[in-house]
Amino acid sequence: MGLTLSCWLRDGHLKKHHIFSSAFSPFSEAPPIRLAVLLDTPPVAPGNPRSQWSPTHLSPNLQVCVSGGSVCRARVEQSSDAVRGAVGVEAGLHIWEVRWEELHRGSHALLGVSTHTCPLQASGYTALIGGDSCSWGWNLSTNQLWHDGKRRWYLGGGASDIPSIPDRVLVVLDADAGTLGYVVDNCYLGVAFRGLPKGAELFPAVSCVWGGAQICIRYLCGTTRDAPALQALSRLSVRRALGSDGPRSRTRALPPALQRLLLDL
Predict the structure, then answer these.
(1) Nearest Cα to 71, choosing from 55, 50, 48, 88?
(2) Which of 118, 192, 207, 235 lies deepest, with the highest CB count within 10 Å?
(3) The pTM is what?
(4) Residue 177 has pLDDT above 80, yes or no
């Protein structure tokens, strides 16, 4: 295991491991080591303030549920509506899980981040998240990346080049490096945006046009810009060596403390 860890630390990246077959595997990249460790980290406990949409920073056509973890759009026409997360971040590497049913997206289903100045409502159907210089978004319906009103393709060369984006998408914000990326089907799709303002408070954000759309958010985990701890690297190395097809059965002979570490008990 020491040789494996030394190779990871030397190269700065993990080798790509295909845990299971996914239609997004051809578009995936090996995640940087900090991200690989974070993706292998158990999620934070429910009720974290970062797992909530803001009850005040949203379009009047959107309503946040009592728990704050879900927002629903009213059945209105000719309106684009956005909401930001309740808590932003200024530093560190962070991952949010967003669940948004494919059938409830419509033509402009933008998922990304914004500062506190991004507009939250506009007439007609448009990309609010990514429509100005203070927001960055991926249109889950068209595979287009939007920023400052400009668009470009994220994966492949167009919307027809990729499979449908599933309901669950992870948003990966590295506020230290100023980058934004996404994870789908356990496949890291690489950096979508670079040059995000360092030190600025950035919020997870969505904008939608579909009447009745319900969008859920959950903060999974985050880390500082420090190098991952040796224990976290060792845990990741052992879990990858055990594989995803039966790590629980393969750890029964290990001491209880190691079982708890490897199996999130």
Answers:
(1) 55
(2) 207
(3) 0.82
(4) yes
